[in-house]
Request: fold
Amino acid sequence: MKLRLSKPGAKSRIFLVCLAAAFIFWFLNALDAPSDRNVVLPVQYDESPVAIRFIDSLPGQVTVWVEGRGLGFLSADLQVVFRNPEISLGNLRSAGLDDTLQLELPVREILKPAAGDFPEEMRIIRTEPESIRIRYTGNFTRRVPVIADADFEFRKQFMLEDRVMVSPDSVDISGTRGALASVSLVRTVKTIVHDLHRHTRVRVDLESPGNRIRLSEKEAILDIPVSEYAEGTVQVPVTMSRIDDRELILLPSQVQLTYRSPVSRFRQISPLDFSVAVEDLSPGKGNRASVSVSREPDQATVTAISPAWVEFFILN
Reply:
């Protein structure tokens, strides 16, 4: 038995036509109904004055919600419709004060079309944020020395040959007048350098004196001159103070100093480069006083004093 398909009748055709017309009417009506879209725009700033310091981070973007109608609105590239917001900071002034000043700009006022005017079927309904708030204060700059905060551990028979050099030896610090008032120097981050046995250069970070202070440099280099050392001894006379202008006698009158010096400078060392002294000669503490080194050359380090005590006698 064969199955026979009947052709659609006139009523079916009319129904399909009506259905299509209803869809088109609905579609056109939907296009004419208002709808909203959003676009994220980056905010651009021109160069700010050096004398200005911003308290908060400057907003980097704004979100704009737009309402419109029609197929043109739904298909429009909003990134092309809007120009990226631009804010000029060149006219900001602090008058040299520590006071916090504020500039508030409604976002709607800085939104511009990329070309001509905004399309008539499009309007801005809201932005996030509603306004850009810029808080700022005066910025002051001062130059301070950089001090190395470092400990050195040497391999056996090695020592510093000369002073440790820091580069840069000073940096600019900037911030509010109040923040800079108590800052007289900048230190490196605490560093320990191990097993020194040759000339060494170490890169270290600088430690910020405070959250509201900026440094012109973030790191420094420690230049550490290292040399083998030789050990020597010298006989040095002991100097002393007088008690009530009375004459004193010390026994012994000189002591032996044991010192270390870089090999390259060992022959330059002289007994005249050292001084030792006794200071506390109060009779109430007996007739013994300790000896201390009051002067030594930069290129030498005293490691022992013998004897470490002397006896003193007051002459009537």
